[in-house]
Design brief:
The protein is of the alpha/beta class. A six-stranded mixed sheet has the order 6-7-8-3-9-10, sandwiched between helices. Helix 3 runs parallel beside helix 5. The longest helix has 16 residues. The chain folds into two domains: 133 residues, Rossmann fold (3-Layer(aba) Sandwich), CATH 3.40.50; 76 residues, no CATH class. 39% of the residues lie in helices and 24% in strands. It comes from Bavariicoccus seileri.
């Protein structure tokens, strides 16, 4: 279980997270939703020890993250929000680097790499450098590297960005099967349909504050007749029936016709 208590992160006068409290059970698929700048990536970077919170605490199975950082980091694989990393390496070199970092058994590595590279259709390009790849292909390389060690916790920041429909489908199936084995998956997304399809629990953030935490079904039950998109926009965005700006823009376009 992951317990986030009163998590706050400030950058000068800006508050990126404001007293966020979350509990993520083992084996859950947990989605972080919110507009750009809502605090999703900041939460993820605190969980993965990339940044330190200003105040509050994070514990994994009752172990404090600051006190057991290395032990906890060994249980986590992370897919960042950009795959533009280690561009001088070939795909194979990157995967070997990840395998070495997690002490993956060489025999298991061979089997796991074949399974994942076949799935994501990356076998034939494994010797090419990441700098030669498209955004989507780089994303596949990072995802494969994150799954080599089969960690207990998989944390992904906007993992579907840039993936083609087949790769996105395969990743979602991997997430489901991964959680079914008792592992925990935490991911951020702007894709409401994906969140509704995959997540056991979601957290919706707005300007660093938690505005909802629970299941999609429970959320929709509080707004009979509304879609998840409509509910989401009522919580964090401009209401769906607020068309003043849209009407102004449309009128402006018409005036130029």
């Amino acid at each position: 279980m992951i317990k986030i208590t009163d998590l706050t992160k400030t950058y000068g006068s800006k508050t990126a997270l404001n007293d966020v409290n979350l509990t993520i059970e083992n084996g859950q698929i947990f989605g972080l939703l919110g507009h750009n700048g809502a605090g999703k990536s900041t939460t993820i970077k605190c969980l993965t020890s990339i940044i330190e919170p200003t105040s509050g605490s994070i514990a994994f199975d009752d172990q404090s993250l600051p006190e057991h950082r290395q032990e906890i980091k060994e249980k986590i694989s992370y897919v960042p929000d950009t795959p533009d990393l280690f561009l001088q390496l070939s795909a194979s070199e990157y995967w070997n680097l990840m395998a070495s970092a997690y002490n993956v058994d060489p025999k298991h590595l061979t089997e796991r790499l074949k399974e994942l590279t076949d799935l994501f259709e990356m076998t034939q390009v494994s010797d090419e450098t990441l700098s030669e790849f498209s955004h989507g292909m780089r994303q596949k390389v990072i995802i494969i590297g994150a799954l080599l060690a089969e960690p207990e916790i998989w944390i992904l920041d906007e993992p579907l960005q840039g993936l083609d429909p087949q790769a996105a489908f395969d990743l979602k199936e991997l997430i489901k099967s991964y959680a079914q084995k008792g592992n925990t998956v935490i991911f951020s997304t702007h894709d409401l349909a994906t969140a509704q399809q995959l997540c056991d629990q979601i957290a919706i953030l707005k300007t660093g504050k938690l505005v909802y935490n629970g299941s999609v079904a429970d959320l929709l039950a509080n707004y009979p007749g509304d879609s998840l998109e409509q509910v989401y926009l009522q919580l964090v965005g401009r209401h769906t029936n607020d068309n003043e700006l849209i009407n102004e823009l449309t009128a402006g376009d018409s005036a130029h016709d």
